[in-house]
Write a structure and sequence with these properties.
It contains 14 helices and no strands. The chain starts with a helix and ends with a helix. The chain is elongated. The protein has three domains: 92 residues, Serine Threonine Protein Phosphatase 5, Tetratricopeptide repeat (Alpha Horseshoe), CATH 1.25.40; 117 residues; 35 residues. The relative contact order is 0.05.
Length: 291
């Protein structure tokens, strides 16, 4: 009799426990600046203990919490802890799931921030290439991974590899993909990654200036229809400083051509005005001379 009552009491107690989804949603909605980051993380730990089969999304949330930076609220970004929890989330999650993909992506970004550590850079590439093999070719996720491979190449200081990643990114961007809520539109995602490549190429001191100018122009000519690439190219050429160099004048990009024409017109106008004023002044002086 007592055994039956005990079992019934356990069942009744378990029936009062909120489902994982409800408790997790409440934690996601918590504002760490109000309640305190440590308190939210402690609740996450409790939830993981109560629902060990659902550890992956909770570990990912803990990693994101450690990534927050709000000195006013009493906490700063803790990169080491965020990396640790992203790796845990990745290990907890089932291969190929959204949680696994996001944890992998965030982990690679943190690993690349420590550029002096060659092993971290290598590990970041391994994770990205593994991630790339598990995303659909024509998807927003594939576009994001390709953009990350551009940044990966820059972290490795390998411009050739980075340019190949740019070409791959451009190829994937030709596919029509839907943008998830709150995410960067594909056009801006591509434009931002290509701009970083061109700026880094412009600043590559180990590459002769003439070669940098040529590579920037060739890249632009090949992909001139891409949104905002003309501005990125103009900025890159400005960084190289082509107009101060004794190189053969490069073919300007469209926006530069307009600017050059404008200043040529202004310059010619100023010269004509000065000559006209000088001629009038001379004429007046001649007329004032006694005959």
């Amino acid at each position: 009799m007592f055994a039956v009552l005990f079992i019934l009491s356990i069942v009744a107690f378990q029936g009062d426990v909120e489902p994982f989804e409800v408790q997790f949603a409440r934690l996601v909605a918590e504002d760490p600046a109000v309640r305190g980051r440590d308190a939210v993380i402690a609740d996450c730990g409790t939830l993981m203990d109560d629902f060990p089969a659902n550890r992956a999304p909770v570990a990912l949330l803990i990693g994101r919490l450690f990534d927050l930076n709000n000195p006013t609220a009493g906490f700063v970004q803790d990169r080491a802890s965020s990396m640790e929890w992203y790796e845990k989330a990745r290990n907890f999650a089932e291969l190929g799931t959204p949680v696994w993909a996001e944890a992998s992506m965030r982990l690679t970004q943190r690993l690349r921030e420590i550029r002096e550590d060659v092993l971290n850079i290598q590990k970041s590439r391994e994770i990205l290439e593994n991630l790339q093999s598990h995303v659909k070719r024509r998807s927003y996720e594939a576009l994001v991974v390709s953009a990350e491979l551009v940044y990966q190449g820059l972290a490795e200081r390998d411009l050739e590899r980075t340019e190949r990643a740019c070409e791959q990114l451009i190829e994937i961007s030709t596919n029509s993909v839907s943008t998830p809520d709150g995410k960067l539109p594909p056009t801006l995602l591509v434009a931002t990654a290509l701009r970083e490549y061109l700026i880094n190429l412009a600043q590559a001191g180990d590459v002769p200036k003439r070669d940098r100018v040529e590579r920037i122009q060739v890249f632009f000519d090949r992909h001139k229809n891409i949104v905002l690439l003309d501005r990125a190219t103009e900025t890159a050429l400005m960084i190289v400083g082509t107009w101060k160099d004794d190189l053969e004048a490069p073919q300007p990009v469209p926006s530069q051509r307009i600017g050059i024409r404008f200043w040529l017109i202004v310059g010619n106008g100023v010269v004509v005005l000065m000559l006209t004023l000088a001629w009038l002044k001379l004429k007046v002086r001649i007329q004032r001379q006694p005959t």
